[in-house]
Specification:
Shape: globular
Organism: Commensalibacter nepenthis
Largest sheet: 5 strands, parallel
InterPro entries: CheY-like_superfamily, OmpR/PhoB-type_DNA-bd, Sig_transdc_resp-reg_C-effctor, Sig_transdc_resp-reg_receiver, WalR-like, WH-like_DNA-bd_sf
Protein name: Response regulator
Pfam family, one: Trans_reg_C
Distance between the termini: 25 Å
Number of strands: 14
Number of helices: 8
Strand content: 15-25%
Strand order of the largest sheet: 2-1-3-6-7
Keywords: DNA-binding, Phosphoprotein
Radius of gyration: 18 Å
Structural class: alpha/beta
Amino acid sequence: MENKHSVLIIEDTEHIRKFLSQALIEEGFKVYECDSVSRSLIETASRQPSIALLDLGLQDGDGKLFIQEVRQWSNLPIIVLTARHDESEKVAALDMGADDYITKPFGIPELLARIRAQIRRIDIKNTVSNIFVFGDVEIDFNSHRILKKSQEIHLTPTEYKLLSELIKNVGRVCTQRQLLLAVWGPNYIEQPHYLRIYMGHLRQKLETEPTNPKHLLTETAIGYRLIF
């Protein structure tokens, strides 16, 4: 069944590119393909896809060049496809502006879930609303009130600022550096223990099972993510 969204696949291994393309077409996506950084920039500008799937190792350069260029003029959701298991590579891509990553090899159901999450994130961002809900938690940004199962929850200013940053990037992987910079400022970007402490506080107050969180998730060695 066709849907309104389109996907740009940027992958220089032809059989992987064709496999992904066929799987996405079967799910109703319109698909565009390319195999280089230079072509990907042209396709992005001309096709204006809903989302990009980006391999980091391309024939004419590192895929992070695509992220760097595109982020100068577009908020296009970018999911990095990488066979690189070095966490620093993933962090670098996310810090440059990628929205998510998935490590090869991966299954199509997982990829589709990641794509849908990014599409939902954009749809939410484009919807004007002062109320945000996840699980049994409701945040009213006008009044700064937070309810869990209709009971008001008190957050400290720092906890509220951290939660707001995660909500602003709902569905997106936020690196430790991004969150530390946004919440505490540039003098704290080498202090990840602040995040661990305050994420623990948020989970205690907002998660049903703080030790097994369903919404405030850790991306090991990378950062955190808020999901529905």
